Amino acid sequence: MSIPADLPQSWEPLRPYDLRTERERNPLGLDVRIPLFGWKLAGTGRDRSQRTYRVRVVAEGDPRVDSSNAVWDSGVVESNESVDIAYAGDALSSRTRYSWSVRVTDESGTDSDWAEPACFETALYDASDWQGAEWIVAPNEPGTEGEHNLDWVGGRHVERIWLPAGDFLEAVDSTVEQVFFRGHVKVEQQPTRARLLADADAELRAFVNGTELPADGTADDRVTAALTEGDNVVSFAVTPGDTPAALAASLDITLADGTKAGLVTDGTWLASSADSDNEADWKLAESFGHHGTAPHGRSPLTYRPSPYLRREFALDAGVRSARLYVTALGVYEARVNGHRVGDDHLTPSWTDYASRLPYQTYDVTDLLHEGGNVVGAVLADGWYAGNVCWFGTFQYGDKRALLARLEIEDEDGGRTVVNSDGSWHVGEGATRYADLQNGEVVDARAEPLGWDEPGFDAGAWAQARVDTPSHGPLEAQKAPPIRVEHELPAEAMHVREDGRILVDFGQNLVGWVKLDLRGEAGHRVMLRHAEALDHNGELYIEALRGARATDEYVLRGEAGGETFEPRFTVHGFRFCEIVNHPGELRLQDITARVAHAAMEPIGEHSNSHEHLTKLQQNIVWGQRGNFLAVPTDCPQRDERLGWTGDAQVFASTAAFNYDVRGFLGKWMYDLRDSQYEDGSVPHVAPDVLTRDGRANEAGAAGWADAIAIVPLELYRAYGDRRVVEESLDAVDKWLGFLVENSEGFIRPDAGFADWLAFTQTPKNLVATAFSAFAARCAAELAREIGRTEDAQRFETQYANVRAAFRARFVRGGGKVVSGTQTAYVLALHFDLLDEHEQPRAVQALVDNIAARNWHLSTGFLGTPYLLQVLTRFGREDIAYRLLLQDTMPSWLYPVVHGEATTMWERWDSWSDSHGFQDPGMTSFNHYAYGAVGEWIYRELGGLAPGSPGYRHVVIRPRLTASISWSKTSLETPYGPVSVNWSTAGGEFALQVSLPANTTGEVWLPGQEPVRIGSGEYTFG
Length: 1020
Hints:
Strand content: 25-35%
Helix content: 10-25%
Radius of gyration: 31 Å
Mean pLDDT: 95
Distance between the termini: 38 Å
């Protein structure tokens, strides 16, 4: 390597670093047959660029020095491309480890050294690679027929009831000898099946129309026979013991025509302390909360213990290499020789299991040894069999199952394979119940210590049963795994007079609580979670709707103390209430474990405005909380769905904060899997809204259009051409649906329009505007991958929709029908107005804002583009006025007045004038309005992509007297970009740093743009 003599002494050749395969560092378990390679370039000086590259991939050895095992040597390629270089060598083999390196030539013709090698390992390419591995389940695995449901029946939630009283703990600890309850249910036809369940933590007797019957789900036939057409009376006699009692009961009825009826305990029941015929002795029972919540918790009747599966085997030699390929229907935690495998949680995560089922690959070499070994797993319901949305359990299936293949290469060259099959043993343990929404019940006394280690006596355990469940093709996991990415200590706690402990973590988050305890065996502790406190300082649980969000732990009684940490549930919360803690709780005994998809953080922004910086932090926390398995609308209530509209408006902001290429790329598979044959796109992905005979929920404007918008945002942010190639045919189908389901290109009143706007815009106006935008997005996507004929066709569709929009909704002088802020924003942003109309339309928008005392009135679809439109047309003064507004509605109202630590679902989720909004739909962790982050980074921060993936960067900060400095940085596919500016002392100063192989365009106030190359620059 020689350095030209005319270069400065500080100059050094470019060198490649941070080698990535499929944008990941040294990935394990790829089933991509043509992986993409990329690297970044380091080197001092300005205007640095790559002239050539050479990539070498080897199956064994060091690619820098050994080419004898090369499966691909690109040779010297004249190209400045350094991102997404497609592999072009010999066919790759399954479960094989490859190493690769790259060397480059810079702009001066100087060669670099070979880079430090990277590696990747292929997974199981073909179904035959799973040979011998079978799905296994517990032999007595309960399914839908065995479900004991005290959570909800017929859409109504089971409530704990007792005699009317003021205080719950006093009420349930009644000194009366017996309490009687009556409820009525009307049955239109003779039932074919009925199940009666009841729990009171006390002795109880149950009656149906005067006939005494068991209420534990064991007498379905007798209960069915006791019911009659017409009115039926269900009654209970409860004898309280020494502990508090409260009744929870359900009667689940199936009628002859297959329809359902039912009865649940709630505040409509009658209660009495005397079994009397005198109506005056009977009062309306008082409800004290849902079954499954503190202080009673979950009835053992409704437990669904997790299967514990194990297989013991022996190895005759030491281990050279070992890989565990594993997945489940449900979620799993894998174990090897007493150790947890990996640090992933809630695997295999959520997808449409009928379309595809992801599996994971783990390197377990260090966990195995010569002699006896054990591989095992614990299963739980997860999304597959647990509660999803408000539809209840078993949305995909009812039997939790495991599929595993452990491949071991020993030091002598031998090979051992341990497959999941009928030789495995199945037992139960401490996890008695686990549901993502409701929480987890752990009885530590039931844990079979050592079950996952050699030598455990599994003689009493049953043999696993081989099953043949239906599911989509197995594929290696595409999305980043769910992991604990942060830990937050408790900030404060308050002990109530009745002993309850309220803990505040100071941050609305998603995850679970880790609690250190010391107490006697059998002592039960309960933890309930909520995002906010009500006006009495109690947990605001109404907004959880049906989600119980309650964990229970029964102590084992370890002398040295013990730790409770749930592993198969997740909660959205800032506050946690601990009931029945066995002793004195110290702040250091309780920690919040923050979990989300393990995305790489890549963007940062801060500025001199305290409240804006806090807003940015809230946007990031909102993304963390809702980017778990799919981009959800909220993480706390009984919903947690991948709403398409929410995702598309936030995609650009999300792509700045974190590298979401893998996360949203996987979600695009979910979205395409859910698309209907007619081309319509559902409201959510995975689509659970239309399962089990429910009517199709699809085609909503701004929601369904995500199928075109999200791929474009990923391409702009990362230069990701693959997602464009994979998506374009689905986009084409969607555009065809729009044509077929429009009248003269006017889209009908479809969907949610400008959801949660303070002023509603006509639905057909919003829908038609988005039809035009979808066609324009499609045209851009098609052009980028060379499908020019398709691009022209999509442009023609855009022109047709634009003409129809103008004829229906545009009036003289650029007036837009309805005159709402969103109407003008969409018309301007989607270029639906002619150039001469735009100034007057912009002024009409500004006038509307002024008439509202400088407040916005937009909803989910208008808000993301509002500041962009104002800035594009020269009114950044109004954009800043809106951004810095702190009275409601505004972005800063929750920050300044609501002590928000995440984004709110509504502008007025809480207000000082009305308190909480509708508890049926009020979330304090909902990222949609966080879409303003895009404007903050690009316009306030001044850092925007000028070409896909930031190969060319536009630096154009928009200044305001209210902000004196800004710092913005982004780790792009080419390397770090930073833009820092200051107006301290009245002097403008700008510092810019661009990585090698990129260029920039700098806009200084009042000047023409300046073109720059890579390097560090100061302007002032």
